[in-house]
Design goal:
single chain, mainly alpha, Arc Repressor Mutant, subunit A, Tetracycline Repressor, domain 2, 2 domains
């Protein structure tokens, strides 16, 4: 492979600088980005910035993709740092990593999980990255199921419409490993998805101030709640 040309390196560096300035604008102005304002902060003409990002939506998409990558990396790194057989420890580590990433990057978390940006529709290529946390949690449950270490599901089975969605997810290979699908039953997957939605509900309540005057110490509250989700998911 040949080394990137000087022009390519300069373009890559300026692209990262544009995104860095745009992230600062996210923190103060939300997702209502102005390419003109970003260009002004960089000392560029607006026409020069459009050579890197053709529109506000294109810049937003780049920021969204970067944020999903960073959040996915945080979740997967936390999972990898715990012994494979410590299934509950892996679940808790991933959940805490998601919360810590969100607390360090509240503007980017808001871009991913806050109110939709008016007039913006995320392209399809964001979908795979958006699934990484769910896939990491599902992978832990899959390992537990294959080891025969998940507790039996509760007596209440999912209703038929929900069961159809669960069957579709299993058939579409939501499990991230190259092994036969179906290690998780529909009931087990339903409990895992409940934990996934509870995780982001907890983080969103904290990031968006919904716990104020309700919970004074957020971290022990969060830890207690995700331990309940691990119980419900059936992790030993």
């Amino acid at each position: 492979m040949t080394a990137p040309s000087i022009r390519a390196r300069v373009r890559a560096e300026l692209t990262e600088e544009i995104k860095s300035v745009a992230r600062r604008h996210l923190a103060t102005e939300g997702a209502n980005l102005s390419l003109r304002a970003v260009a002004r902060d960089l000392g560029l003409a607006s026409s020069a910035l459009y050579r890197y990002f053709a529109s506000r939506d294109e810049l937003l998409t780049a920021l969204i993709l970067d944020a999903y990558r960073a959040l996915g990396d945080a979740a997967e790194d936390a999972d990898a740092a715990v012994t494979d057989t410590d299934l509950r420890g892996r679940w808790l580590a991933v959940c805490h990593a998601v919360r810590q990433w969100a607390l360090r990057h509240p503007a980017e978390y808001t871009l991913l999980y806050g109110s939709p940006v008016p007039g913006y529709a995320a392209p399809a290529d964001t979908t795979a990255l958006a699934q990484r946390v769910a896939l990491t949690l599902t992978g832990i449950l899959t390992d537990a199921a294959r080891a025969g270490r998940l507790t039996p599901p509760p007596a209440s089975a999912p209703p038929p419409p929900v069961r159809a969605d669960l069957a579709r997810l299993i058939a579409s290979r939501i499990e991230p490993r190259d092994e036969p699908a179906g290690a998780l039953t529909e009931e087990q997957l339903a409990r895992g998805l409940a934990g996934w939605s509870q995780l982001f509900g907890l983080v969103s309540f904290e990031i968006f101030g919904r716990l104020e005057q309700v919970v004074e110490r957020c971290e022990p509250y969060f830890d207690h709640q995700i331990r309940l989700t691990a119980d419900f998911a059936g992790l030993p």
